[in-house]
Amino acid sequence: MKLGIFGGTFNPIHYGHLRVAEEVRYGCGLDRIIFIPSGSPSLKTAEIAAADHRYKMTCLATGSNPGFGVSDIEMNYTSKSYTVNTVMKLNGMYPEDELCLIMGVDVFLDLPVWREPERLVGLIDFIVMTRPGFSTDELKASPFIDLSEGDGQGIYRLKGGRTARVIHVTACDVASTTIRQLLREGRSIKYLLPEPVEQYIVSAGLYRT
After folding, report:
1. C-alpha angle with apex 34: 176 to 30, nearest 5 degrees?
2. Residue 207 contacts by C-beta under 8 Å, 6 or more apart in sequence?
3. Three-class SS state of 180
4. Which strand (E) or helix (H) includes residue 17?
5. Mind listing the pLDDT tens digit for each residue in 76-131?
6. What is the pTM for the complete model shown?
7. Per-residue model confidence as pLDDT tens digits over 129-168
8. Structural domains in the chain?
């Protein structure tokens, strides 16, 4: 099977996450996309709801799509969660499957500040989604892109021997930060995320302060 690995804080998950995931699943011919809410993310610390809340919201948001799944692989980390460690575990869990790590152009460009990025780019193929405000041409400046190889069709060879495939997705102007701000202001978040997620946020009293 071809599995897409879509990690993030999902704080909270919203329609923007879900729509781009569906477009990647279809556009790249993936059998399934596995959402992985981060446990204790290494680079984001402010305003993050507890991991169990974010995991439950992700399950609620994706439950109606048979092409989506959710993993709790990062829930039991006792320290900061690092993608390189998660990918190594996933490779062991799915030895017969083809795994691809899904991220936006902006996130890919931040790889140099991640834990062991040189190792990560040798462990898994990447699917890189377009993002408003970022040009895919910026990828050529990444220290992990091998400019001596490529097919000219949006597939780059990584210096770790893997590939990075660029896919154009619909620009969804929805952000978790906006949703949290609306909640702090006591305003409606309806139609920005699935109704079960909205109901969970209200019942759990999340993002009010």
Report:
1. 115
2. 12, 47, 49, 179, 180, 183, 184, 201
3. helix
4. helix 15-27
5. 777 788 999 999 999 999 999 999 999 999 999 999 999 999 999 999 999 999 99
6. 0.93
7. 999 889 988 998 999 999 876 555 789 999 889 999 999 9
8. 2-175 (3.40.50.620)
